[in-house]
Amino acid sequence: MAFITPAILEKDFSEIKNKLTFLRSRTKCVQIDFCDGIFVPNRSWPFTSGGFNDVDFRKIINEEAGLPFWQEFDFEFDLMVADAMENFDVYMKLGPKRMIFHLSAQKNISEFEHFLESLDMYVRDHTEMGLAFRPSDDLAIVSCLSHRVDFLQCMGSDNMGRQGEIFSNQALENLKTLKRDLSGVVVSVDIGVNLDNAPDILSAGADRLAVGSGIWKSPDPIEALQTFQSLV
């Protein structure tokens, strides 16, 4: 069964809390987008307010607080950052259920593969690792790395770090190819998912849809979320 994951990309921690308040009792899993202004042009919290020195960020990683309503959500972190491997332990302190690394952020694929292989078994047992790739990325590399991760994330556009992008036809073809060639692979789709194209994306085999602007830019976000959820 497919699943809808609301995606939150915000510059202010207070806005993340507001959206999580809205999502309480309406969904279990939420994706939080981290954009560092280096790997992608845009910046999101905490990189808009001091990075790892942001006050709220420091409280969480020092275990003085948790992400808002952390008992109620499974958090999925989309790490659109240049240093996801180097700061993996820091992000883990935020308490994710899933972590998503981007293929195009990796300077050395062999080092990245070794990093995935060497992760502590306790971490792997409790946190799913995902690999995100752009429409223009080499599917052969994605396929080779697929057995090192728990799921793949098919990005709907090469333009990452912003919500409201147009979904690429190439992304749909990539999804179809992976679902055909990799037996049992779990694939999420993120960027450009809306109520018009969601049925086609699900028909192509998507297991999860990460939806940002399709919910938050709707005149009625509650109705939009419920409509997306009725599709799966």
TrEMBL record:
Keyword list, A-Z: Isomerase, Metal-binding
Gene Ontology MF terms in the entry: metal ion binding; racemase and epimerase activity, acting on carbohydrates and derivatives
InterPro entries: Aldolase_TIM, Ribul_P_3_epim-like, RibuloseP-bd_barrel
Highest taxon of source: Bacteria
GO BP: any one term: carbohydrate metabolic process
Protein's recorded name: Ribulose-phosphate 3-epimerase
